[in-house]
Amino acid sequence: MTAGEGLTVTQRRYVSAADAHYGGNLVDGAYVLALFGGDVIETTATVVRVGRRSRELAFEARVVCRANPERGPSASDALDAPITVVTARGTVVVPAPAG
Fold first, then answer.
1. Is residue 6 part of a domain?
2. Which domain holds residue 88?
3. Within 13 A of 99's CA, how many CA atoms are on the CB side?
4. DSSP 36
5. Hey, which residues does 26 pair with through a beta bridge?
């Protein structure tokens, strides 16, 4: 087995109702195919503060592969170092315990 052979990566992505157009609220195939093109992004969320009823999160998105159309319409290159493209912070409120 060569390096990387058999490697599987799975991304779960929320698809909003706005992206469902056909009978039965189906998402069109072009939307799904677009997920395979362009840059490869990795995202991370980290809990940075835990309060009594809240959590503060830090988010970061990095490009790890960049499209290279000079090599072909679907070619891309793995970057030596990821490029951070977005950082954000958010706070979520945890429901009070029942009782």
1. no
2. 17-93
3. 1
4. T
5. 22
Please provide residue 67's backbone torsions phi and psi, each rounded to the nearest 5 degrees: -60, 145
The structure tokens listed for 25 are 């609220």
Report DSSP state, residue 28: P
Distance separating the N- and C-terminal Cα atoms of the chain? 56
Q: List, for residues 11-43, the tens digit of each pLDDT value.
A: 677 778 888 877 777 887 777 777 766 788 888
Query: Does a structural domain hold residue 12?
Result: no
Establish if 54 belongs to a structural domain.
yes
Minimal CA–CA distance to 92: which of 49, 56, 47?
56
To the question of pTM greater than 0.85 for the whole model, the response is no
- Work out the burial of residue 76: count CB atoms within 10 Å of its CB; fewer than 13 is exposed, 13-18 middle, 19 or more buried: middle
Find out whether 75 and 68 touch, Cβ atoms under 8 Å. yes
pLDDT digits (tens, 9 = 90+) for 42-76: 888 889 998 888 999 898 888 888 888 899 887 88
Quick one: tokens of 94?
């945890």
Residues in the chain, total:
99
